[in-house]
Amino acid sequence: MTRHRRTTPFSGDRDRDPRVTRLLREEYRAPSDPAYWDGLESRILAYVRATPPAAAEWWEAFAGWTRVGLVAAAVAVAVALSALLRTREVEARVAYEAVVEQPPATLASARLGRTAGAPEREANFRYVIEP
Amino acid sequence: MTAVLAFPVPAERMSAPLEPPSGERALVLAAQRGDGAAFAGLVRLHERRAYAVARAIVTTHEDAEDAVQEGFLHAFKALDRFRPEQPFGAWLHRIVANAALDLTRRRKVRDADELPETVASPFRDPGEAGDLRERLRQALTLLGERQRAVIVLHDVEGFKHAEIGRILGIPEGTARSDLHHARALLRRALGDVRSDL
């Protein structure tokens, strides 16, 4: 296996033109004065200091309310479920009572209705025995 | 929640010598506990490299300073989410790069809305050869934003392809490809300049 000897600090430099690189380094050269970096450091810290933590992220103001919100949401869900169950129970009871506890008059008329086409003799018989 | 640092930082602690990388982890942990001096130490350790990352992306020295400031502010806000076992520099560079890219986008929008009144000035040393630099700057405008960042980060700052990929959020192969195309384009554009050097 051939081992390539690296002739520059960086890999893949065969297409690099050293003169263009030199120009680039001159163009992008960072300030060399230590005082500049001390100043930048001070500006950065002042900038960070000037940003109050409360204003850092607007949604963080609500972070403390998360637990309260979760409890409130759980209570609301429980109340809603309870109300739903109660409504279903009431509906079921009403439906049951509507079927089971019909008034006698209604039953009598229903029976009369059912016998509307019966022979006349049977109708007379029913008239006699029914209240 | 955002850490609250105990500012102002004592001057004697801010100027204390710091030894990376073993000292860096201690600084990160202390800064996460709210130690302002520790955060100042991190700024001191990383501001030059952070500036280099920002400068590779934006077009002016002043914008690079702004991006570095924004980057450190974002890093400060997100400090409690940083895992100390990770390299702080790589994490910070990504944040600074994002701040620089964001600044570049805002500049584009603003420049599209306004007529430029002044020409943005790069950092200059007194003895620069203005003409050659001007021609290089013109050649750099022919590069895409990402290609320019890649060639500066690699050829000027010495970042590796993988590091550049992480900083700019692109695959390593894309960084290699961008570097190749950027070099070729600059070589072609500066072909006549090269003979003057």
Descriptive key words:
heterodimer, A: 131 residues, 2 domains, 0% strand, rod-shaped, disordered N terminus, B: 197 residues, mainly alpha, Rna Polymerase Sigma Factor, Chain: A, Arc Repressor Mutant, subunit A, 10 helices
What's the gist of this structure?
The complex is a heterodimer of chains A (131) and B (197). Chain A has 131 residues and is mainly alpha-helical. Chain A has six helices and no strands.
3D architecture notes:
The complex is a heterodimer of chains A (131) and B (197). Chain A has 131 residues and is an all-alpha fold. Chain A has two domains: 18-102; 103-131, no CATH class. Chain A contains six helices and no strands. Chain A is rod-shaped. The longest helix of chain B is centred in the middle third of the chain and has 26 residues, at 88-113. In chain B, α4 (61-77) packs across α5 (88-113) and α8 crosses α9. Chain B is mainly α and 197 residues long. Chain B has two domains: 1-123, Rna Polymerase Sigma Factor, Chain: A; 125-197, Winged helix-like DNA-binding domain superfamily/Winged helix DNA-binding domain (Arc Repressor Mutant, subunit A), CATH 1.10.10. Chain B has helices at residues 11-14, 22-32, 36-57, 61-77, 88-113, 130-141, 145-156, 161-168, 172-189, 191-194. Helices cover 68% and strands 0% of the residues of chain B. At the A-B interface, α1 and α2 of A face α3, α4, α6, α7 and α9 of B.
